[in-house]
Write a structure and sequence with these properties.
This protein is an alpha/beta fold and 286 residues long. Helices cover 32% and strands 26% of the residues. It has eight helices and 14 strands. The strands form four sheets. It has a six-stranded mixed sheet, sandwiched between helices. Strands 2-1-4-5 form a four-stranded antiparallel sheet, covered by helices on one side. A hairpin with a 2-residue loop joins strand 4 (63-68) and strand 5. It has two domains: 4-224, P-loop containing nucleotide triphosphate hydrolases (Rossmann fold, 3-Layer(aba) Sandwich), CATH 3.40.50; 229-283, Roll (Ribosomal Protein L24e, Chain: T). The protein binds adenosine-5'-triphosphate and magnesium ion. Magnesium ion (MG) binds at residues 48-49. The site of magnesium ion (MG) has 2 residues, from helix 1.
């Protein structure tokens, strides 16, 4: 079996034409092994979602080649893509994208159905998976009745339901409190180590570094060498020290993603220093 779950070569994506042309991704190459967690970080607008969408066969590249589990995506006709996606990929989106008319169990069943598993078998598989995530008493709840953390567990259960070769996660921990953010990180890591999936996460969230086997930095659509990084104490984003807004405090330089975060910090530094200290014990999930 091929060790590489994904191989991408010279991937580019250009949106629009003429004056409004945007080179969202510029000749990016990468390989991801089974069982590996790759974290792709980078500023807003650097092309992370575009790259992930191409890797997940949701967006055709302008040029370049993507091979998933030995299959060249360019050779797949449009009509075969939905089934291919359902079997090979698990997706986790920032806002989970659970179907609101379906229960937790039906949300998982739905992706099993797409990949060809139906009837009682898919019902049982979905129930077992969700029970494994501690959701036995929530199987029949619709998403609006689930807490943020519960929704997230349903989303992860759905992403791994078909035992995909590849899990693609776009900002999976954004807008979540620290505890739930760590929980999703742990579950994604488990999908890689227990299920052997290749996990590709794009995110600003520096907490996800704990589970990453490898981190790549995307900027203006290209991978760059990571310069020295720091964590913005206000929003928690990873920022490059070079060229970032910063200020000096107690003899140390503190870096920020934006002037707005710097000003918020400057108005009441104690608040953010205390918050960081409170979050420290949870910083290394097992
Ligand atoms: N459908 C589209 N049409 C035109 N331009 C687009 C389209 N999708 C993305 N872009 C542009 O491509 C660039 C990369 O966008 P992308 O969404 O991949 O960034 P990102 O790194 O995911 O940003 P964020 O961290 O804010 O989610 C941006 O300049 C964006 O405006
Ligand atoms: Mg994005």
């Amino acid at each position: 079996m091929n060790e590489m779950a994904i191989e991408a070569e010279g991937l580019s994506k250009v949106f629009g034409e003429g004056d409004v042309q945007v080179h969202a991704v510029r000749s990016v190459s990468l390989q991801v092994r089974r069982g590996e967690v790759l974290l792709i970080m980078g500023p807003s607008g650097s092309g992370k979602t575009t790259l992930l969408s191409m890797l997940g066969a949701m967006l055709r590249p302008t040029s370049g080649r993507i091979v998933v589990g030995g299959v060249d995506l360019a050779t797949l006709p449009e009509s075969k893509l939905p089934a291919f996606r359902a079997r090979r990929f698990g997706f986790v989106f920032q806002d989970f994208n659970l179907l609101s008319a379906l229960s937790a169990q039906e949300n998982v069943e739905f992706v099993l159905n797409l990949a060809g598993q139906t009837g009682k078998r898919s019902r049982d598989t979905a129930a077992k998976l969700l029970e494994g995530f501690g959701l036995a008493s929530r199987l029949h709840f619709r998403p609006h009745k689930l807490s943020g953390g519960e929704k997230q567990r349903v989303a992860i259960a759905r992403a791994i339901a078909n035992q995909p070769d590849v899990i693609l996660a776009d900002e999976p921990s954004a807008n979540l409190d620290s505890r739930i953010g760590h929980e999703i990180a742990r579950l994604l890591k488990r999908a890689a180590t227990h299920e052997g999936a290749a996990v590709v996460i794009v995110s600003h969230d520096a907490r996800l570094k704990d589970i990453a086997d490898r981190i790549l930095w995307l900027e203006d659509g290209e991978f760059r060498a990571m310069s020295e990084m720091a964590i913005d104490p206000v929003c928690g984003m990873s920022v490059e020290k070079q060229d970032s807004p910063h200020l000096r405090r107690d003899g140390e330089t503190v870096y920020f993603c934006s002037a707005a975060c710097r000003d918020e910090f400057a108005a009441n530094p104690e608040r953010f220093v205390r918050r960081q200290a409170a979050e420290l014990p949870a910083a290394n999930p097992s």
